[in-house]
């Protein structure tokens, strides 16, 4: 029998999970004393960033610059050194493991990457909830469930901060939509706010998180409608007051518009810098009495406390830091990193269907495997926006499958292009007007006179900074070599005022200038394209001549943004579909990789629907008809509709798998690693069934009308049947649930940290292979019509050998039973009868028992 395993529950009152020691770093410095010793102008200056990614230094007191970096898929750094970053699977993928230990290992890797990139603060994790499946940052969030989100976030944060790197949990709060994200107000009733949307933030505060990011949106609460960066009842009242949070609250980038309200409301740090509303406005507000200097001192003390925690405040006698400050990743492509990221991506993969045990596949000697799909050729490894990092490599599925099945013949077939836009123009096809490789850039002043010229190697470089204030626009010139007869497509996507000439013809012109506002919306990262179709009978060159404005990004600097794409003649989608179907028919197994792409999933915009792009549904149906041994692999971070789900032999949800995409897929298909993922959200069968179909503001407000019933709770409330429910995942083993008993909670400490009870669950692996199970525990209260029909209250991940049994203990924490009372303005523990359910998913509940809280 396998040993008893203690599972994750809620953190106890001192912030520690069962069996985990709380890390409470401290130094002998007195942050308040340091703050009080500084002159007022220096104190105020500390409260705005020094640059886009750095905080101010004061060498005289031993305070060095602190550097922050985007996450949560990897540590990008400041972007100045060009070094690649380890690219993790998307958070929605790692959440599918339900594995706090693996989450901690990934957090430790992030901390090591931060060391390598000289980063002090990682802007991760995101603990907003996946309220609607079309949310643009759905892939960046962990789950639709607040309990699962909280448990995984706590493990991730602790692992980062144990290495002396700060985690910055975001976005506080009610930031579940990208549409008009800087303008809308989230209207959430107090009970829902407390029990659902604040719950993950409360958990990470109890665990000791050092920084929290205030969101772009506003929130209505207690009659106060205010932006998240200036919401005193939330920041001062709940976060710092009620919860006792001693870290800093930093604004999302460019979210702060005024000086006084955010300063009084609880914001501590405005980013980015220099400049911004606090640069001069806050100093004046303190001097004329609108903001007390004591408020400034508290903010500075918090920054000093952060500096002490990350080792940025030196020269203090007796200062000690309880961390290994030397650990750094040697190589983001090293064996240890590759192995961890392969394991994470494989373990996160969810088996949605596996008829006749087709998976794992075992091709015959010299058997054929047809690998099909645009996402098989170019796997989508990460979503767009601030989470984007440049990896050291992307493991190709074709190479990995050939290595995993050396006796088989593995062929690759696109099956049709799935993106609307063309690929970036490659360097080999580009020549400057001077005959040099690449693209020539003339930087022009307001009169059109050339100030400076430079040369860029390829189209990927057409987002570049401009440091000379005299430069008003950039002229981009190159000759594109059209090497073959046929139809060629040239696309240019300018941001702002522009004039575009292609092949001697004016294609587009606009005098509409833009400014810093484009940084925060989709027009910046996904500008509309000006498309030119050119039919040629013989090879020739085409001149591209485009002039684009310089954008004043204020704290982001001045820059030019232009995308330049090119598609050469090639087979039509119909021809590629036919070729893929023929290959499938001639193969022993067909593996079809479908999914989303950078046009679909990104920060900055929400998806319009849940359909797979282009003709991928048609591809699946035709391949499955040609070969009944078809495995469909879904390469997407957020839900998409799978209308053929019950018509194919096997389906895997592969997520956005990160840099080890191919290796993880090969490990899953071959059975080297069991795909033990369980859905951290609900997969819809039909778009019209989704409880919250979108998050589009109405008159500037998003009403969270579903209340407590977010995600799977909403599906239960409405009685609708999804394609696959929350928590679903078959894995490769088979399981029996043998027994469930409740035992008294272990005696707690003086803070009352003992659980109310412990659920002891015995399961058996009845398969012929070892397996990993995720035992899920849900509660219900029959006499309470307001509470969700069922809610997740615990889980355990356990490995069990073939034919063996295991017993897991799951803590039933007091908070899982408590409700927020608006009348009492506090948490209450309702007495009465409850049911405790355990099983494999939210709707595959194998055992249950009663639990009573006496009156």
From TrEMBL:
Residues 773-842 form the Fibronectin type III-like domain. Keywords: Carbohydrate metabolism, Glycosidase, Hydrolase. The keyword Hydrolase applies. Transmembrane segments: none annotated. One of its GO terms (molecular function) is hydrolase activity, hydrolyzing O-glycosyl compounds. PROSITE patterns: GLYCOSYL_HYDROL_F3 (PS00775). It comes from the Bacteria. InterPro entries: Cellulose_deg_GH3, Fn3-like, GH, Glyco_hydro_3_AS, Glyco_hydro_3_C, Glyco_hydro_3_C_sf, Glyco_hydro_3_N, Glyco_hydro_3_N_sf. One of its GO terms (biological process) is carbohydrate metabolic process. Residues 1-25 are annotated as: Disordered. The keyword Secreted does not apply. Pfam families: Fn3-like, Glyco_hydro_3, Glyco_hydro_3_C. Belongs to the glycosyl hydrolase 3 family. PANTHER family: BETA-GLUCOSIDASE. This is Beta-glucosidase. It comes from Agromyces ramosus.
């Amino acid at each position: 029998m396998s040993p008893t395993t203690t599972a994750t529950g809620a953190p106890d009152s001192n912030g520690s999970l069962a069996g985990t020691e709380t890390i409470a770093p401290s130094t002998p410095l007195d942050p308040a004393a340091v703050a009080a010793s500084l002159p007022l102008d220096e104190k105020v200056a500390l409260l705005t960033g020094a640059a886009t990614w750095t905080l101010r230094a004061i060498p005289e007191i031993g305070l060095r610059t602190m550097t922050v970096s985007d996450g949560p898929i990897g540590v990008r750094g400041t972007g100045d050194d060009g070094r690649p970053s380890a690219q993790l699977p998307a958070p929605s993928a790692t959440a599918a493991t339900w594995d706090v230990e693996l989450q901690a290992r990934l957090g430790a890797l992030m901390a090591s990457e931060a060391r390598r990139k000289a980063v002090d603060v990682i802007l991760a994790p995101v603990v907003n909830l996946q309220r609607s499946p079309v949310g643009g940052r759905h892939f960046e969030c962990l789950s639709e469930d607040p309990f699962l989100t909280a448990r995984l976030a706590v493990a991730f944060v602790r692992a980062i901060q144990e290495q002396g790197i700060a985690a910055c949990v975001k976005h506080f709060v009610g930031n579940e939509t990208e549409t008009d994200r800087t303008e809308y107000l989230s209207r959430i009733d107090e009970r829902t706010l407390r029990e659902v949307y604040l719950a993950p933030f409360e958990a990470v505060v109890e665990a000791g998180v050092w920084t929290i990011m205030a969101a772009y949106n506003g929130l209505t609460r207690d009659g106060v409608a205010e932006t998240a960066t200036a919401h005193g009842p939330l920041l001062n009242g709940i976060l710092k007051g009620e919860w006792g949070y001693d870290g800093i609250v930093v604004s999302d980038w460019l979210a702060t518009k005024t000086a006084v309200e955010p300063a009084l409301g609880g914001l501590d740090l405005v980013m980015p810098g220099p400049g911004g509303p606090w640069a001069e406005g806050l100093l004046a507000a303190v001097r004329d009495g609108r903001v007390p200097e004591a408020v400034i001192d508290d903010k500075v003390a918090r920054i000093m406390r952060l500096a002490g925690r990350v080792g940025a405040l030196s020269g203090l006698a007796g200062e000690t830091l309880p961390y290994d400050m030397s650990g750094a990743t040697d190589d983001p492509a090293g064996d240890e990193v590759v192995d961890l990221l392969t394991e994470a991506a494989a373990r996160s993969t969810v088996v949605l269907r596996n008829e006749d045990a087709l998976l794992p596949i075992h091709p015959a000697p010299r058997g054929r495997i047809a690998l099909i799909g645009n996402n098989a050729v170019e796997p989508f490894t990460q979503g767009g926006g601030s989470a984007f990092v440049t990896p050291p490599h992307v493991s190709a599925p074709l190479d990995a499958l050939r290595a995993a099945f050396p006796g088989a013949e593995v062929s690759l077939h696109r099956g049709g292009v799935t993106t609307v836009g063309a690929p970036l123009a490659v360097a080999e096809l580009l020549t400057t007007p001077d005959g040099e490789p690449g693209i020539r850039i003339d930087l022009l002043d307001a009169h059109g006179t050339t100030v400076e010229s430079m040369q860029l190697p390829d189209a990927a470089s057409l987002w570049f900074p401009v440091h000379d204030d005299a430069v008003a626009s950039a002229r981009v010139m190159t000759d594109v070599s059209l090497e073959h007869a046929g139809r060629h497509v040239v696309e240019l996507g300018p941001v702002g005022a522009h004039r575009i000439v292609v092949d001697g013809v004016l294609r587009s012109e606009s005098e509409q200038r833009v400014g810093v506002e484009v940084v925060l919306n989709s027009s910046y990262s996904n500008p509309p394209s000006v498309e030119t179709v050119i039919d040629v009978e013989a090879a020739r060159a085409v001149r591209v001549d485009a002039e684009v404005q310089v954008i004043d990004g204020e704290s982001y600097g001045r820059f030019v943004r232009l995308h330049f794409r090119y598609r050469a003649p090639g087979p039509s989608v119909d021809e590629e579909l036919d070729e893929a179907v023929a290959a499938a028919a001639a193969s022993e197994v067909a593996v079809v990789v479908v999914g989303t792409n950078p046009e679909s999933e990104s920060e900055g915009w929400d998806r319009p629907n849940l359909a797979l792009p282009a003709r991928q549904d048609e591809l699946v149906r035709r391949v499955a008809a040609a070969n009944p041994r078809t495995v469909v692999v879904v390469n997407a971070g957020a839900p998409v509709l799978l209308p053929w789900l019950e018509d194919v032999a096997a389906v895997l949800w592969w997520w956005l798998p990160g840099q080890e995409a191919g290796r993880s897929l090969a490990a899953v298909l071959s059975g080297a690693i069991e795909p033990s993922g369980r859905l951290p959200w609900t997969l819809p069968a039909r778009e019209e069934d989704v409880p919250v179909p979108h998050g589009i503001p109405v008159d500037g407000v998003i009403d969270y009308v579903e209340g407590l019933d977010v995600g799977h709770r909403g599906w239960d409330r409405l009685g609708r049947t999804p394609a696959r429910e929350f928590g679903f995942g078959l894995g490769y083993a088979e399981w029996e649930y043998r027994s469930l008993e409740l035992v008294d909670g272990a005696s707690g400490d003086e803070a009352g940290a003992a659980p109310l009870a412990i659920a002891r669950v015995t399961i058996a692996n009845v398969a012929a292979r070892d397996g990993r199970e995720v035992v899920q525990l849900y509660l219900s209260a029959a006499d309470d019509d307001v509470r969700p029909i069922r809610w997740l209250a615990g889980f355990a991940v356990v490995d069990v050998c073939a034919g063996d049994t295991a017993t897991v203990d799951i803590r039933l924490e007091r908070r899982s039973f408590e409700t927020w009372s608006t009348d009492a303005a506090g948490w209450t523990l309702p007495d009465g009868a409850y049911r405790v359910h355990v099983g494999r998913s939210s709707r595959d509940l194998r055992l249950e028992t009663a639990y009573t809280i006496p009156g």
